[in-house]
Write a structure and sequence with these properties.
Elements lengths: L1 E12 L2 E6 L8 E4 L2 H16 L4 H5 L8 E10 L5 E16 L2 E8 L2 E7 L6 H12 L5 H8 L6 E9 L39 H6 L1 E2 H7 L11 H9 L7 E4 L6 H15 L2 H4 L7 E5 L1 H5 L7 H13 L4 E5 L18 H11 L3 E6 L1 H10 L1 H4 L3 E4 L5 H19 L1 E3 L2 H13 L7 H17 L4 E3 L1 H12 L3 H4 L7 H11 L4 H16 L9 E6 L6 H13 L5 E5 L8 H6 L8 H8 L4 E5 L6 H13 L1 E3 L5 E3 L4 E6 L15 H15 L2 H4 L4 E4 L5 H16 L2 H4 L3 E5 L1 H11 L7 H21 L5 E9 L2 E9 L19 H5 L2 H12 L2 H16 L5 H39 L2 E6 L10 E6 L12 H17 L10 E11 L13 H11 L3 E8 L5 E5 L4 H5 L5 E7 L3 H5 L4 E7 L3 E10 L4 H20 L16 E7 L9 E7 L4 E7 L3 H12 L7
Parallel strand pairs: 10-13, 10-14, 11-12, 12-13, 15-16, 17-22, 17-23, 18-19, 19-22, 24-25, 33-35
Antiparallel strand pairs: 1-2, 1-8, 2-3, 4-5, 5-6, 6-7, 9-11, 20-21, 25-26, 27-28, 29-32, 29-34, 30-31, 30-32, 33-34, 35-36, 36-37
């Protein structure tokens, strides 16, 4: 076999590598891919096919030419259609020998090797290349030249080698005729001899089902980690010699077994001197495969044995090593009902005879199972036990990993990151040993930061906490050691989900507090609770509430109905069997270890299932039929039981709680074996519900019915009357079924009523319906929502809304001229006279006079400040333009160092040397333009005292499905609009809000908007003071509609109210609401009083799904019905885009209708 070294030209094309052979002329080969090793193997295979048809002289041309180098020159050429192209082009300079002693240099493009020219080494290379290629490429297409032949400066020449039996000159010598050939008795005797078949060392099966680890290590994509002794030396001693020993690494998950094997492969490549010859054919091959891939697709008896025979033949090469991922499954893999033969039985002989070298990794538990199933096969392996690292060594490994991750991922780790990674990683993943738990978390953290951010990102301990919160679902308050947890607020949150169960709520809060304090047993589940009590009292709902708070989503509930586990085969269903090792319980928790495991109605399970729970509750783990261990130590185990609940009319509601709880406790202790009962952390009794709680349950179930997709998708918002809820509670509850009877009653009554309303249909896009009680059942009062009519008006910002700041900045002189005209207008001069008259009347004590005088004086002050600001900005812009008129300045470079040298002059753009100016942002420029238009339009109304003080009412009249959040209040349209209106202009002097319990919260200056919104109000009134506030906000009156795929829809009505104070607005709303509801109850068909929550025309519609991760943005679509504007932008929050639309409405031209 001959080693052939070939030169290739490498460049990057659209995130892929492209290789092209150099020096082959018309036989140039090209290949594209992501892996250099795969590209190299593909080119080698193609060259092998070509070599078989080449002459010895042509093969010699393939060899690496010493002195071949790459140069890049700048050329300007004229190509087809007389188009000019300019750029840097790569050239290969290659020395050739014309005759002995006479050396010449040729140059050619690496992709067009058959077009070359002789180089005059004393002349300019660029001029020679320009003359040659201007003639040769004159007919080439411009696109081809610019896209294929121009270089980006990141290309290079590299070489690779491969082995092949090349043709020799001796093969072309014709042998002379044998003079004694005619003496042969049988001339055809030699032809009938069977030709000996050449032994082939193909890799067909290995390439089909295996992964070439050697190629991955050669490419530099395999994680090598920091070398660790003594395992590195031990692996080299066992596997680098002429007779390799089968080896298996034993250790817990995360201890670094795979990394040690990758490091050994790297050492093996170094021992093969791969860096010098770059020939993978001369290096050892380590192929990674698994029992699953070996058996994949093998459905008939004998299929997998045939494949294994081929694998044995291919792996018989002493340079081939098989790395098996799941070596522990070889004892059972391959067995079926027709055959007891396994992979261990097949490979036992080849491994023992040294025909196949096999290595692997396993945990001690997995290896013990292999020794049970196939002891003879397991005894063939030398075991190396890998122990976890200590804290100091783990920190060294983290620092080594960080040095590689920082330049690759463009991140920077602060020193506190390593401590947080080690502590939180071990706390949340106790089943993974060091250093793997910390290193894996560091890699995932860097990958997450590189994916979500552009450019370099600095990561600190807060980034670690945020990443783990998103990954595990745990709230950040449980992960931050410095975060505070309010038990009272947590109790209120749980009580909103589970009604009337104070003992259960206290148990849930106690669990959260113990997890927060780190006082849970690290070798057991977070908690094991037994929920007992009558049916329909909220046991399953409490399990969902725990999943929602602890893990962020109620879908983290793994529910197993123990009523289906009554037979002796139930254990196999939960943990699997030999034919299907994936168990129902173990597989679900393995996929989601952070979850609440609900074992519903545990008393119905088979006794063998109860015995299975002993290991789960005591050690926090279960081993499935395949030997894989499932970790339950970060799960909460909840068992429910109806033991002691008597099938009589008193179950569920109205029964004395003490008697029921005593009976339930006695039944539980009698049923559970002592060894199982003692492993339960807490028995949580659920008491029968009282009539007062029954009404709250009815409200909750009704809210879930009214938030269903059929209503929210059709934008139908339904609100029940309080008297209707009381009647439903009285009619719905059945003591035998508890709270479950509520859903049936609501489906039969309210559900049917709504179905009829939806079936009738309506042209209105949105509707609001009220459910009220009548003599014959329940009825609906429907209010339709229509779109506001567009105004026939001209808006001065309409053409500027999407312009960049550079364009808006040119309008500053025009804005200044308008402000000066307004300051000198007759209206403003008349205001000066009006101010003098009001000053004379001020002594009369009329508050209206004082307010009007204050507004007029404030208008003059704001107009003066606006004019001064625009004058300053305009003057600064003129100075900048004057400086930029001189296109460049000179920079003198003085000689430096002892060598001296001439001074150099460099011409720089003026913008590079002037200090940055405080330029106005696009939003600030739009605000100034809108403010000018607003003041021009409102100048004739400034004398009206009501113009400058408004009471802005925000009423949430409809809200669809919203996922409950325990850790923070979810932002919605109501909160976004409140933030928008309080931050646009003017001052907020007072605010009143109605809490969900009906109480009123009033705040005055200094106003804390966050304190108001933290009370989750549905009704808010803001007292705003400012020049022309009524004119500014009158266009905002109407319904604002927000729709979201995740949160449903929300309608917020905005209105300018007429009252003396904010509280008066809320009280008047309550009085009108009671009168309206009373009229509905009386069944008035005509003459209903005005509904205070009536729907005004829709003025704006928004479609927006808030981003789920901090720092991200989402697409916002806004349709403004009044102005006719449609906006589509990527924003983080809705107020970011609504500010511009609000100023657009304020810029309505003066005199427009």
């Amino acid at each position: 076999m001959t080693q052939i070294t070939v030169t290739v030209y490498q460049r990057k094309r659209q995130a892929q590598l492209e290789w092209a052979t150099v020096g082959l002329g018309a036989r140039t080969l090209r290949r594209v891919g992501k892996s250099p090793t795969k590209i190299q193997r593909g080119l080698a295979d193609e060259l092998r096919k070509s070599i078989r048809n080449m002459s010895p002289m042509e093969v010699a041309a393939l060899e690496l030419v010493r002195g071949r180098r790459l140069r890049r020159v700048h050329l300007e050429l004229t190509v087809a259609d007389r188009k000019r192209v300019s750029g840097r082009f790569p050239l290969v300079l290659e020395p050739r020998w014309r005759r002995p002693g006479e050396r010449v240099v040729i140059a050619y493009h690496p992709l067009l090797g058959d077009q070359f020219f002789l180089v005059d080494e004393d002349a300019d290379l660029a001029e020679q290349a320009k003359r040659f290629f201007a003639h040769v490429w004159r007919e080439l297409d411009e696109v081809f030249v610019t896209e294929q032949l121009v270089t980006d400066g990141k290309d290079l020449l590299r070489a690779f080698s491969f082995s092949e039996r090349a043709p020799q000159l001796i093969d072309e010598i014709v042998p002379e005729a044998d003079p004694f050939a005619d003496l042969e008795v049988d001339p055809d005797r030699g032809k009938r001899k069977k030709k000996r078949k050449k032994k082939k060392h193909g890799r067909k099966q290995l390439r089909a089902i295996g992964e070439n680890v050697t190629a991955r290590v050669a490419d530099g994509v395999a994680p090598l980690g920091r070398p660790r002794e003594p395992w590195r030396s031990q692996l080299a001693q066992l596997l680098n010699g002429p007779r390799k020993q089968p080896v298996v690494l034993l250790g817990p998950p995360g201890v670094g077994k795979s990394t040690l094997l990758h490091r050994w492969v790297s050492d093996l490549l170094e021992a093969d001197d791969y860096a010098a010859h770059r020939n993978l054919d001369r290096a050892h091959e380590v192929w990674r495969l698994s029992a699953t891939r070996v058996l994949a697709g093998m459905s008939y008896v004998g299929d997998w044995e045939k494949r294994c025979v081929e694998l044995t033949h291919e792996a018989a090469d002493p340079r081939v090593v098989l790395w098996v991922d799941d070596l522990h499954t070889f004892g059972t893999a391959g067995r079926s009902r027709q055959s007891e033969r396994s992979l261990a039985d097949f490979f036992r002989g080849p491994v023992a005879r040294g025909e196949v070298t096999m290595i692997g990794e396993a945990t001690p538990t997995q290896w013990h199972r292999l020794q049970e199933h196939a002891p003879a096969f397991a005894d063939r392996f030398t075991t190396l036990r890998v122990t976890p690292t200590d804290a100091a060594e783990t920190l060294q490994l983290l620092l080594h990993e960080a040095r590689e991750l920082e330049p690759a991922r463009e991140v920077a780790f602060r020193p506190e990151v390593y401590r947080a990674v080690m502590q939180l990683g071990e706390t949340l993943h106790p089943g993974t040993a060091r250093p793997g738990v910390a290193v894996d978390l560091l890699r995932r953290l860097a990958a997450d930061a590189a994916f979500s951010a552009d450019g370099w990102t600095e990561l600190d301990a807060d980034a670690v906490v945020g990443f783990l919160a998103r990954r595990t679902g745990l709230p950040e308050v449980l992960l931050r050691p410095d975060a505070s947890l309010d038990p009272a607020a947590l109790e209120d949150a749980f009580r909103q989900h589970v009604l009337g169960q104070d003992e259960a709520v206290r148990a849930a809060v106690d669990l959260v507090a113990r997890i927060r304090a780190g006082l849970t047993d690290p070798e057991r589940p977070f908690a094991t609770y037994l929920f007992t009590g009558p049916t329909g009292t909220g046991k399953t709902q409490m399990a969902k509430a725990l999943a929602g708070f602890l893990y962020g989503d109620e879908s983290r509930l793994v529910r197993v109905d123990m009523g289906e586990m009554t037979g002796p085969e139930s254990v196999a269903r939960l943990i699997g069997d030999r034919y299907d090792p994936r168990g129902l319980l173990t597989d679900a928790v393995r996929q989601q270890p952070f979850s609440v495991v609900l074992l519903d109605e545990v008393e119905k399970a088979h006794p063998a299932v109860l015995q299975l729970l002993l290991q789960l509750l005591d050690e926090g783990r279960l081993t499935d039929a395949g030997g894989a261990v499932t970790d339950f130590r970060r799960a909460v185990i909840v068992m429910t039981s109806n033991l002691g609940a008597r099938p009589r009319a008193s179950v569920g509601f109205g029964e004395r709680a003490d008697a029921v709880l005593r009976e339930v406790d006695r039944a539980v202790r009698d049923f559970f074996p002592p060894e199982l009962f003692n492993r339960i952390d807490r028995v949580v009794p659920f008491a029968p519900l009282t009539p007062e709680i029954a009404e709250l349950v009815c409200e909750k179930e009704l809210a879930q019915l009214l938030a269903r997709r059929g209503l929210t998708d059709r934008r139908v918002f339904v609100f029940p009357h309080p008297d209707a809820v009381k009647r439903m509670a009285a009619d719905a509850f059945d003591a035998r079924d508890g709270a479950r009877s509520v859903k049936r009653h609501l489906e039969a009554t309210v559900g049917a009523l709504l179905s009829d309303e939806l079936a009738r249909g309506s042209r209105a896009e949105m509707r609001m319906a009220r459910v009220y009680a009548a003599d014959d059942g329940y009825r609906l009062h429907v209010d339709e929502l229509i779109e506001a009519e567009p105004e026939e008006a001209r808006y001065e910002l309409e053409g500027l809304l999407h312009e960049p700041a550079s364009v808006l900045n040119r309008l500053l002189p025009r804005m200044l001229a308008r402000v000066r005209d307004l300051s000198e207008s007759a209206e403003v001069e008349a205001l000066a006279e009006r101010v003098g008259a009001l000053v004379a009347e001020l002594g009369g004590g009329d508050p209206e006079v004082a307010r009007t005088l204050y507004a007029l004086d404030r208008f003059r002050a704001e107009l003066r400040a606006l004019r001064d600001d625009l004058e300053l900005r305009t003057s600064a812009n003129r100075d900048v333009e004057r400086e930029l008129s001189v296109d460049a300045v000179r920079e003198r470079r003085e000689p430096w160092g002892w060598r001296g040298g001439p001074s150099k002059m460099k011409r720089l753009d003026r913008r590079h040397v002037r200090p940055p100016s405080a330029a106005l942002s696009r939003e600030e420029l739009l605000r100034r333009a809108g403010e000018i238009a607003l003041l021009e339009r409102a100048v004739h109304r400034l004398g009206d005292a009501c113009e400058h003080r408004v009471l802005l009412e925000l009423l949430r009249v409809g809200q669809g499905r919203r996922p409950p959040r325990y850790d923070r209040a979810p932002d919605g349209l109501f909160e976004w609009l409140a933030e928008l209106y309080t931050g646009l202009r003017g001052d907020v002097l007072a605010a009143s809000a109605r809490r969900p319990d009906g109480s009123i919260l009033t705040l005055e200056e200094p106003l804390e908007l966050g304190a108001l919104l933290a009370a989750h109000p549905n009704h808010l009134v803001l007292e705003l003071h400012g020049v022309a506030m009524r004119t500014f906000l009158e266009g905002e009156q109407g319904c604002h509609v927000w729709s979201s795929l995740l949160s449903g829809a929300e309608i917020v009505r905005v209105r300018l109210a007429d009252a003396e104070s904010c509280e008066d607005v809320l009280h008047e709303h309550d009085r009108s609401a009671r009168a309206f509801e009373r009229a509905l109850q009386e069944g008035r068909g005509e003459g209903l009083p005005e509904d205070p929550a009536r729907l005004l025309p829709a003025v704006r519609r928004l479609r927006f799904d808030p981003p789920t991760r901090p720092g991200e943005s989402s697409l916002l679509e806004v349709e403004d019905y009044v102005t006719g504007q449609v906006m589509v932008e990527n924003v983080r929050r809705i107020p970011d885009a609504l500010r511009a639309l609000t100023w657009l409405r304020a810029s309505r031209a003066r005199g427009a209708s």
